[in-house]
Amino acid sequence: MRGIFAFSFVLFLASAAPAQEAAAPSVETLQAKAMELKPHKERYWHLLLHYRRNLFGYFRSEADGMEFFLSPEGRTDPEAELLATVAALFEPMPENPEAEHPRCKFPERTRWVIEKLEINEAELPPVSCPVFDSWLARFNPGKASLIFATAYLNNPASLYGHTFLKMTAKGAPESSDVLSYIVNFAATVDTDIGVLYASRGLFGGFDGRFSTVPYYLKIQEYTNVENRDLWEYPLDFDQEQVDRMARHLWELGHTYFDYFFLDENCSYHLLAILEIADPEMDLRGEFPLWAIPMDTLRVATREHVDFGQARFRPSDFRKLKQLRQELSEEERELVERIAEEHGENRFEGIEKLPPERQAFVLDTADLYLRYRAATGSEAGDTGKKSDRKILLRRSRIEAKYEPVQIERPPRPDLAHEGQRFSLGGGATRSDSFEELTFRAAFHDFLGPPEGFERGSEIEMLGVRLRVANEAEEFTVEHFGLARIFSLWPADPWSFRFSWEASLEGNLPREVGCREMRCFAAGALIGGGLAAGTQFWRSELFYLLAEAQAEGGAGFKDNYRLGPAVRGGAVVELFSWWRVLGEGRYFYPALGDEVDFWEVRAEQSFSLHRNVELRAAGITGTRPDEISGGFYFYF
Predict the structure, then answer these.
(1) Cα–Cα distance between 208 and 212 in angstroms, integer?
(2) Dihedral of alpha carbons 176, 180, 185, 190, sign
(3) CA 295/CA 634 separation, integer angstroms
(4) Angle at Cα 99 formed by Cα 96 and Cα 105, nearest 5°?
(5) Is 566 left (phi over 0), alpha (psi -120 to 50) or beta?
(6) Cβ atoms 135, 141 nearer than 8 A
(7) Which of 129, 425, 544, 574 could form a disulfide with 104 if both were Cys (CB 3.0 to 4.6 A apart)?
(8) How far apart are CA 243 and CA 79, in angstroms?
(9) Environment class of 95 (CB within 10 Å of its CB; exposed 0-12, middle 13-18, buried 19+)
(10) DSSP structure string for 173-192
(11) DSSP 3-state assignment of 220?
(12) What is the Cα–Cα distance from 553 to 520, expressed in whole angstroms?
């Protein structure tokens, strides 16, 4: 009996051993399971690998660095990348301590695969990820906010503004700056040659990379140096969503994306991070051709944002202008003397003020001096020594004053849409016509100003088509690649030249040719001065000297080149009514011999945030004409 029992026990062990071996997972069995379940077809896998379908319906990842893929075919084959990821789970820890295991390199990707295939992590080879763990502990994200920086016209990459993410540490208040990091996507620029910079930026010649930087450093760069306001939109993502974004951001540190100014830019790729938090959102799908930061801001804030919690951080210059309004003439002279001079007598006279006004003057002088140092108007070492003296004197005053509330402008997400078309018509002295216009982006002087910087005009890819009724002809009156105005009103505390640049083509009717063979294309640059007033509501005056070059069959010798002068005013009569008057004279020093002058007046009536009625009149070398139409933003 004992022998029978012993024999049965041996048979049980023999049969159980293979069963235990069969229960252990293998690469082959898990790959077979993956091919059966097909998680590579799920949207989240496509988001993790940044797959997008091309015009022919095939997948291709927007990530351009091959280190982002575990399979040689991974950039275009979601299934091959999935199978390679399954195999990578079984790799042992690399012997090289500087090398990363795939589970360390791609923590969110491998976590999702383990979850989808129901893999017991205890049955996988053990791994340790000290570099990733250290980064995540330092990053320690608990909350996320979307940040919008207003436009900076002196940098082509920031003409439309800039968006990035702010990640606040767990347990820290949302308003914390010291304990926050920003997630930024930007081009790695290796040239300062303007033509190369523009061409490579337009055609993907720069590598775009994600990076994390302490938030307070970005505040110094944007609000102190570049005079850019910041808007913070808290996102209501829970901890798991924030953790997914953080793990994926680590993965993106191992690759790059070809950077394009118009589409695959800072705002576009930031939308991909938000989609990781909420895969049901298809934010990038709304921007098949180009992505303008202000437009992506509107789309990204449709969900997960409480606008009542939106936070405005004014630039130092905006603060200075409002603080200056609170100063008497005597106090203003004191601020200027304290900030601009360095002798001990610069504080002379301040003791005559009440203690609370002394405190206010010294605080304003301190901000003004720091602004001058940040913008290069003050030598660094001299400014620091002078600032220490201001702070020392300020520390001796215990009196307090009521803080000045900085006026909050309209939120940028409330601005009009970026694209625009119009339908209208008009008449010359000899004919009438209908016109259709289209502009891809983004704002001009007569557009609704809410959400835009005063004195900024940026227009890209615009066309104006005309049908003349009596002449029965169709013409392209205008085609513009780019037109930029940056008017900086003269200010005693911040001097900056105004400037303009354009690449455009026009039908030069002033030379007596209205046929399409005469269409002329050219470039223009200019610079000058601007002044702002508030006699009525808001007025902006400008005077610019220009240099212009054009080529076309309608000109003598097929070109004209020479200087020009432009002057005008933009007046906001009411929030819904704006008027522009402008005069321009061009002298063709070379090529064509016909002088050109023009005076035009335009006005715009806002019927809605995205609808306008405009009327215009033009006289000069060209045939006189009047026109009007409805303008629609979308």
Answers:
(1) 14
(2) positive
(3) 10
(4) 155
(5) beta
(6) no
(7) 129
(8) 25
(9) exposed
(10) -TT-STTEEEEEEEEE----
(11) helix
(12) 7
CA distance 79 to 40: 5
Bridge-based pairing of strands 596-608 and 611-620 is: antiparallel
In the structure encoding, which two tokens stand for residue 90, read together? 């079984």
CA distance 443 to 487: 14
Can the peptide bond before residue 206 be classed as cis, meaning omega within 30 degrees of 0? no
Structure tokens at 561: 């080149």
Neighbour order of strands in the sheet with 141-149 = 257-259, 206-214, 180-188, 162-169, 141-149, 230-235, 311-313
Could you count the other beta carbons within 10 Å of the beta carbon of residue 402? 8
What are the tokens at 47? 């988001």
User: Mean per-residue pLDDT for 60-75?
Assistant: 96
Stretch 412-421: mean pLDDT: 94
* Residue 238: partners with Cβ closer than 8 Å, 6 or more residues away: none
- Say how far apart CA 611 and CA 442 lie, in whole Å: 14
Residues 6+ apart with CB under 8 A from 197: 156, 189, 191
- Supply the pLDDT for residue 179: 86
Query: For residue 451, what are its two tokens?
Result: 């959400």
Burial 124-140 (b: 16+ CB within 10 A, else e): eeebebeebeebbeeeb
| Residue carrying structure tokens 């394009």 | 260
| pLDDT tens, position by position, 247-276 | 999 999 999 999 998 889 989 999 999 999
pLDDT tens column, 33-66:
999 999 999 999 999 999 999 989 999 999 999 9
Look up tokens 């063979």; give the residue.
Answer: 517
Residues 6+ apart with CB under 8 A from 469: 431, 432, 433, 434
Closest C-alpha to 612, from 460, 449, 480? 449
Q: Does the CA dihedral 21-24-26-28 come out positive or negative?
A: positive
Collapsed DSSP state (helix, strand, coil) of residue 323: helix
Report the candidate in 579, 589, 594, 590 with the shortest Cα–Cα distance to residue 541.
579
Q: How far is residue 248's CA from residue 237's CA, in Å, rounded to a whole number?
A: 15
8 vs 247, residue with greater confidence: 247
Per the DSSP assignment, residues forming a β-bridge with 543 are 529, 567
CB-based contact 506:495 (threshold 8 Å):
no
- Sequence-ordered list of residues with C-beta below 8 angstroms from that of 320, at least 6 positions apart, any chain: 364, 367, 368, 371, 493, 494
Contact 108, 247 (CB under 8 A): yes
Task: Kindly report the backbone phi and psi dihedral angles of residue 286, in degrees, each rounded to the nearest multiple of 5, phi listed first.
Answer: -85, 0
Q: Rounded to whole angstroms, how far apart are CA atoms 97 and 89?
A: 18
How far is Cα 373 from Cα 303, in angstroms, rounded to an integer?
40
